[in-house]
Write a structure and sequence with these properties.
The chain is of the alpha/beta class and about 375 residues long. The chain folds into two domains: about 150 residues, Rossmann fold; about 180 residues, tm_1862 like domain (pyruvate-formate lyase- activating enzyme, Alpha-Beta Horseshoe), CATH 3.80.30.20. The protein has 13 helices and 16 strands. The strands form four sheets. A six-stranded parallel sheet has the order 9-12-13-14-15-16. Strands 3-1-4-5-6 form a five-stranded parallel sheet, sandwiched between helices.
Length: about 375
């Protein structure tokens, strides 16, 4: 099939969407318990805390976004065990099977495609997530389509549906299964973040960022909510459904969309919404807002790129990141400092200095990764 084709059954096609099978974080033929822990925080942010690491799971939100925005009958299996996955495709008929994956789960995707060809020989296999962007992936995975960008419009087109129909945003909590030292942490719905996805991609487009590459590269982004009014209306809808008062805004650089952010602030103030928000943003953009605006938006946590000492990224030019972090945290805004190890200027001689520089920011949380890694979002977005 060619990429531009529509599936012969159109919106009558039966769709199955999947994340890669479990068990996860095992020392087996598919991975390593030590190298690739399952949960986002335990994998990246608090992995060196050992038994004190924050443990939680995040749903494959991109799969939910696709499922809720196509009219074709669609089943979603998120985090299935291998036996559960095989049972599903052995005992049910599907015309399209979509799999989402990050790069380290290549072996699991190959196994899934093998099982699909065996039990559903007529089904079309679609691969998405960051794995779809791997060079020469077509030679490594027996799939029919590789969705290298945003998945809602792709599936709508493939099913012959209206690609520009209004977005139906999923109503979903951001995480589940929170536990520390093996003990489950009881939480009320109002204290759990709901996921909201205002945009995909990032206009900044740092050259190490797999998310920017996935959604078009430097300067490219896709808005699901163009205005603050539309975003506010959606957040009110989610609040009513879940009873929550906090939101994780899944946007690579939320504050960069300034008109939308300030309109959201205005509407929150007009309607007495004391929401709590968690965001991603770059230092230069954060610095362009007043502290009153940041606090008014309910921002209590910012994932901010520090990258590396003497890095050449414009988003950090002229910004005293240590002073900015201190000011934010003095005003109750926790900072997760994200630092890249292996930038162009790093050498064996200065790498320890670069790490010491990152640690000296004293952020509440710290994330360090090599320059070949990217966000761990495993979605078909």
């Amino acid at each position: 099939m060619n990429v531009g084709e529509v599936h012969p059954l159109g919106a009558k096609a039966r769709v199955l969407l999947l994340s890669v099978f479990g068990p996860y974080a095992q020392d087996d033929e598919y991975g390593s318990r030590k190298i690739n822990p399952m949960e986002l925080y335990h994998n990246q942010v608090t992995r060196v805390q050992g038994p004190f690491s924050i443990r939680m799971f995040h749903p494959s939100f991109g799969l939910r976004m696709i499922q809720d925005n196509i009219s074709a009958p669609c089943t979603l299996l998120d985090f299935p065990l291998l036996d559960r996955f095989v049972d599903e495709i052995r005992n049910n008929e599907y015309d399209i099977v979509g799999i989402t994956s990050i790069l380290v789960n290549l072996g699991k995707v190959q196994k899934m495609c093998e099982e699909i060809r065996k039990h559903l020989p007529s089904a079309v296999i679609v691969l998405g997530g960051h794995l779809a962007n791997k060079p020469d992936i077509e030679k490594l995975v027996d799939a029919d389509y590789f969705v290298k960008g945003e998945g809602v419009h792709w599936f709508r087109h493939f099913l012959g549906e209206d690609e520009n129909a209004p977005l139906n945003h999923p109503i979903e909590f951001m995480n589940f299964g929170l536990r520390i030292m093996g003990l489950e942490v009881k939480r009320k719905p109002r204290n759990i973040c709901a996921a909201v996805m205002p945009s995909l991609g990032c206009p900044v487009g740092c050259n190490f960022c797999s998310t920017s590459a996935k959604f078009g590269g430097k300067g490219k982004f896709i808005n699901f909510f163009e205005t603050g009014d539309a975003l506010f209306t959606e957040m009110c809808r989610i609040e009513k459904a879940l009873g929550n008062t906090s939101f994780f805004l899944l946007d690579e650089n939320f504050l960069l969309h300034r008109t939308r952010a300030l309109r959201l602030l205005e509407l929150m103030q007009q309607n007495n919404k004391s929401w709590t928000t968690y965001i991603f943003s770059s230092a230069r953009v954060v610095k362009s807002y007043t502290m009153e605006q940041l606090v008014g938006l309910g921002i209590s946590w910012i994932w901010m790129g520090l990258e590396g000492k003497d890095s050449q990224y414009a988003k950090l030019n002229g910004i005293d990141t240590k002073q900015l972090v201190a000011e934010l945290q003095e005003n109750g805004i926790k900072v997760l400092g994200s630092t890249i190890i292996g930038l162009e200027e790093h050498t064996p001689e200065n790498i320890d200095e670069a790490i010491d520089w990152a640690v000296s920011h004293n952020t509440v949380l710290a994330r360090k990764q090599n320059s070949f890694s990217g966000p761990s979002s495993a979605t078909l977005k």
